[in-house]
Amino acid sequence: MYRTIATLIAIHCALLAGSEAFGQGATPGLERESTIRGFLSLYEEGKIDEARSIMVQFLQSGKGHPEDAAVLGKTYVNTGELTEAEHWFRVALDMAAENVNKSPENIQLLLAKTLWLLDKKPEALNHFATAGEHPSFEQAAQLDITDSLCEKCAEGRENFIEYAEALESSGRTSAAVPYRKVASAGTLKAGFWAIRMGYADRALSYFYEAESIWPLDKFPIEVQMTVLRDMIVAYWRTARFMHGAVAVERLFSLCHPSSKSEWTCPMDGVASAPLEGGKFSFFVTIHGKQLRPVARLHLALVSKLMEQVFLSVSWEPTTLLLRKPSRAQEFLGSVVSSAYKKQAVRREGTGDCLPETGTPYAQATGWEEDRVEFERCWFLLREKRAFKKVLAKELSNKQYRLIVKGLLIDMEFATKFGSLALSEALSAGTVAGISLSEVGTGLSKSEDASTQTAFAVGTRLMKLLQRVREWPLTE
Questions:
Q1: pLDDT of 324-353, one tens digit each?
Q2: What pLDDT, on a 0 to 100 scale, did the predictor assign at position 136?
Q3: Could you say which of 195, 219, 243 is where a domain stops?
Q4: Do residues 460 and 336 share a domain?
Q5: Which residues pair with 434 in a beta bridge?
Q6: Taking 50 as the threshold, does the pLDDT of residue 457 lie above it?
Q7: What is the mean pLDDT of the chain?
Q8: Is residue 318, in this structure, part of any structural domain at all?
Q9: Which of the pair, 43 or 318, is modelled with greater confidence?
Q10: What CATH number is associated with residue 10?
Q11: How far is CA 367 from CA 354, 391, 407, 415, in A?
Q12: pLDDT at 234
């Protein structure tokens, strides 16, 4: 329930540096310093009763600080002697008097927790209500980029929620706020830790719980931005693509231009940015002007989400590598038939960007492609015309997956390079001249659930990006 004794030792050693909270001066007296060192030495040796005896004598001499009595009380909590702990916390509170909120220790909270365990709940609630005014609460509720993120940050949140609910039930709603904020902040820190350790599901669980404790929109904008960024990453890692699209909408609703030169969000959040240190680079320019860092990163998140949605209706490169050459040939046609063929494509032009649709696999499924080749032909070589007849045939055969992939690739590259004006889908609502509204009508009657989801996510983000491209994205 309380800090470990190792932490208590660290606190007491810090106290030796002195505190002016109670007019004691900057340097503790030699007698207090000697007493504290003796206390700590005996406690570390397991001679708890002797350590307590030294501290009790020192406090009875009238030379101690409130923190000394509080630490003594904690030693009784650690051994389950709550009545003795209550006594020394009351002594500490009396010593602090009107300066209680200047003490490094939140003595009111220590006493309140002990009274709660002793089932003296009405009095405990009174102390909980005043303990929330201590500066330590505001500090604990702050999330800063220098914070150490860890799963243990979420420990103890159940107790704080219990105290908050009890205060709310007694009509002291405002007094419950600090407890909710601290519990939520600790849970968010655990979520930030989880996503950076690769635990996407665990991160989402922490983020959901944190928002149920205290609304996200009541935290500073840097916190909100960081949570939404991390949620987008977690959603694409867990293939919850529509949830990811909703999080993207929330992010762009939060972070947008407030004027031609300013945005509502800063570049930095309260934890390292997603994709930081990765190979996904977004230092791009538009007409010689560099994208604003916050716009660049948020478009990068959209691009990665689009990429993952694309892969959900395609074959990942890793899967292709595991295929036997004959199966890869059957699956992909001539587009990736050999390394020589790929080199020939680069030398001779873009004719081989046209897929062969006569292979056994293609006859069964329409047409599939390697994402790398699709991107090269579709976007980099601008060979949409080569696809137009194939897409039209797809549409007439009521097969839509290739068209949906065209939509996703079109917007993935537009967001990846910050060149939203180059996107055909954003400009005209078409893919190689094929109307997306017609595709949507056809898909609504299809049983291809994965393609339906991919299309729904793609068109939802398309509508968002059609607004975003009108924003001042460059510096």
A1: 444 444 443 343 333 323 333 333 344 455
A2: 82
A3: 219
A4: yes
A5: 431
A6: yes
A7: 78
A8: yes
A9: 43
A10: 1.25.40.10
A11: 11, 10, 16, 26
A12: 96
Strand partners, 291: 474
* Sequence-ordered list of residues with C-beta below 8 angstroms from that of 282, at least 6 positions apart, any chain: 291, 296, 297, 299, 300, 416, 418
Q: What would the pLDDT profile of 355-400 be if each residue is shown by its tens digit?
A: 444 444 444 443 344 455 566 565 555 555 656 666 777 777 777 8
Q: Tell whether 451 is covered by a domain.
A: yes
pLDDT digits (tens, 9 = 90+) for 91-116: 998 888 766 666 667 888 999 999 99
One domain, residues 214 and 239: no
Q: Rounded to the nearest 5 degrees, what angle is found at the Cα of 311, between the Cα atoms of 357 and 400?
A: 45
| Structure confidence at residue 475 as a pLDDT band (50, 70, 90) | confident
Residue 172 scores a pLDDT above 60: yes
- Quick check: is 127 in a domain? no
| Cα–Cα nearest to 353, from 379, 323, 318 | 379
- Contact predicate 31/18, CB 8 Å: no
Do 151 and 88 share a structural domain? no
Domain boundary at 189, 219, 249, which?
Answer: 219
CB 210 within 8 A of CB 191: yes
Mean pLDDT of 30-47: 85
| CA distance to 142, 187, 298, 302, 376, per residue, from 223 (Å) | 9, 12, 15, 19, 38
At residue 256, φ and ψ (nearest 5 deg) are -155, 165
Q: Given its phi and psi angles, is residue 20 left (phi above 0), alpha (psi -120 to 50 degrees) or beta?
A: alpha
pLDDT at 12: 54
CB < 8 Å & 24+ apart, contacts of 293-296? 293/267, 294/255, 294/263, 294/265, 294/266, 294/267, 295/263, 295/418, 295/471, 295/473, 296/418
Identify whether residues 280 and 342 lie together within a single domain.
Answer: yes
Nearest in space to 83 (alpha carbons), one of 55, 118, 113:
118
- Please name the amino acid found at residue 85: A
Residues 277 and 412 in one domain: yes
Q: What is the pTM of this model?
A: 0.79
Please indicate, yes or no, whether residues 142 and 63 belong to a single structural domain of this protein.
no
- Domain range for 30 is 5-118
Residue 30 lies in a domain: yes
The domain tally of the chain equals 3
- Residue 460 near residue 302 (C-beta atoms within 8 A): no
Q: Let me know whether 85 and 138 are in one domain.
A: no
- Strands 434-435, 430-431: pairing kind: antiparallel
Q: List CB contacts of 316: < 8 A, sequence separation 6 or more.
A: 371
Distance CA 83, CA 100 (A): 21
